[in-house]
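Thought: the user wants the 3D structure for the chain below. I'll pass the sequence to the structure tool as-is, report back what it returns, then summarize two notable features.
Action: structure_tool
Action Input:
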Amino acid sequence: MSITNAAGKDVYPISSYTYILVYKDEKDATKGKALVDFLWWGIHDGQNFAKELDYAPLPQDIVKRAEAKINSISSGGKPLR
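Observation:
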């Protein structure tokens, strides 16, 4: 999904996402669980801070895609979420 040159009166003309690279199979389950929990917080409760920090909240379809990716992270074959 592109968010560059979006239509609308109050949109940013140039925008981009921030990407985070993580292992699909984390070796350390404890660290992996902490990472998964933080990423989940970031795309849900963390969005409440976006406006006051002059960031745009994530579109709902991007949240759904991120949820699927976060849910696919495991450790030793066991899901971390």
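Final Answer: Structure generated. The longest strand covers residues 74-75. Residues 29-43 form the longest helix (15 residues).
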